[in-house]
Each structure stands twice: as structure tokens, then as C-alpha cells.
Amino acid sequence: MGTKFRHVDLNVRQWLAISRGKNHIQASISLDQETEETCTTVVLRGHNTLRQWWAEVERCDLVRNGNTVRVDDLYTKEDREKFGDFTPQVCSPGTLRISLPTVLHGATAGHDGKAPCGRVR
Fold first, then answer.
1. How many domains, in total, are found in the chain?
2. How far apart are alpha carbons 49 and 71 in whole angstroms?
3. Could you read off the pLDDT of 7-37 as tens digits, one per residue?
4. CB distance 11 to 78 below 8 Å
5. Binning pLDDT at 50, 70 and 90, where does residue 4 land?
6. How far is C-alpha 112 from the chain's CA centre?
7. Residue 115 falls in which region: left (phi positive, over 0), alpha (psi -120 to 50) or beta
């Protein structure tokens, strides 16, 4: 059985305070044909709204401090309506995916073991 996770790959508090991670990029290469059920999902243009969304997290006293912040329970229905939902980014074999660490992203559940996070390679 696969797992499902959503996160931001940066310590948001340090990014806001001292710009730590602002010049980083992250990348992955698809090894096989993905589908909407077996791909990475992202909040489109989330790098533009992370600061505003995190202010709401702070206001609700839900801040987490770590180099990767899991947002499964932090990114609410209201947040999805206001800032955008996680959107599948389907890639073909050999596709290079490059993004900023300020983009909220994750993987699909893939209960059949075919999703990237649920497959042993």
C-alpha cells in the first residue's frame, strides 16, 4: 500500500527570517510513465503565496520548525480554496522536474503500489 504526503522542502521560519534556501532548486527524474494517480502533485504558483499562507499558520499557532514541513493537516480546505489545490503534474519517462523548495508538493496515494512513494525500485 502506498502512502500520501504533502510538504514543503524548507524551514519556512528560516526562509522568512534570513532567506535560507531562497536560491535552492530541487529536481527529480521520472523513471516511468506517470498518471494522475501515480505522480507528484503541486500547488501551482504556491511559491507566490507561501508567505501569506504561512502567516495564517502562525496566526493559528500551528507552526512547525524543521527542514521539511509536512502540511497534510496544515493545508486546509479553506487554504485550497484561497491559494489553490494540489494539482497532478504527470511526467513521461525521462522527464526532469525542477521546482523551487517554496512550492508545496506531494505524491498521490497509489494504494496499488504504483505511486512513486509506494513503489520499491
1. 1
2. 14
3. 999 999 999 999 998 889 999 899 999 998 8
4. no
5. confident
6. 21
7. beta
Q: Are strands 26-29 and 96-99 parallel, antiparallel or unpaired?
A: antiparallel
Residue with cell 494517480: 37
Domain extent at residue 36: 5-118
pLDDT digits (tens, 9 = 90+) for 64-89: 888 888 998 899 999 999 999 999 99
118 three-class SS = helix
Q: Contact, 36 vs 115, CB < 8 A?
A: no
* Cα(102)–Cα(66) distance, integer angstroms: 14
Three cell numbers written together for 101: 523548495
CB 106 within 8 A of CB 4: yes
d(Cα 96, Cα 11) in Å, to the nearest integer? 24
Q: In angstroms, rounded to a whole number, what is the distance separating the alpha carbons of residues 48 and 83?
A: 9
